[in-house]
Amino acid sequence: MKKTRLTLIGATQRKVTKTNLATSGYRRALIAQLTETLINENKNPHEFEFDDQDVESNAVVDAGANTELMALLQKISSEIKQQSTKIEKQSTTVEQSTKIEQQSTEIKQTREKIDAKIEQQKADIDDKIIQQLRELRKQFDVKAEQQSAVVNTKIEDVRSKFDQKVIELDQKLRSG
Q1: Is residue 143 in some structural domain?
Q2: Which residues contact 27 (CB under 8 A, 6 or more apart)?
Q3: Is the backbone of residue 9 left (phi > 0), alpha (psi -120 to 50) or beta?
Q4: What is the number of domains present in the chain?
Q5: Is residue 129 part of a domain?
Q6: Would residue 45 count as lying in a domain?
Q7: Is 116 contained in some domain?
């Protein structure tokens, strides 16, 4: 069994050397590198056979290494999924934050436009009110002058009648 493991390690190192990967280190690290390389080459690491392996070493690889590889691959896959989910959530959060900032800016700009329109409308209304007040004042002054003329005419008429009555009374008193 020990000879088979050494053969397996040697075969693994030779395969790793062919792929320009490190050949020294722990067996698990070498197997992980080889597995990653096989996956990148679109090969199934469970079906990979070393050039100089016999049936017995295949059984050892299948029974021991493949189990370890599968566990490691599952663990790595799980960690990748977790990190991917975390990144997606952060990305979504960043996107939402960016949208909120954009909407906030748009709201602020819209508010500024509305405030400017309100100020302009206030100024326009104030101008119209002032113009209408001037027109009303002119109309009032004209009407007041007209009324004053009418009143003055009536006063003159009454004064004239009064003066006439006073003269008539004065003549009656002197004649009589």
Answers
A1: no
A2: 9, 12
A3: alpha
A4: 1
A5: no
A6: yes
A7: no
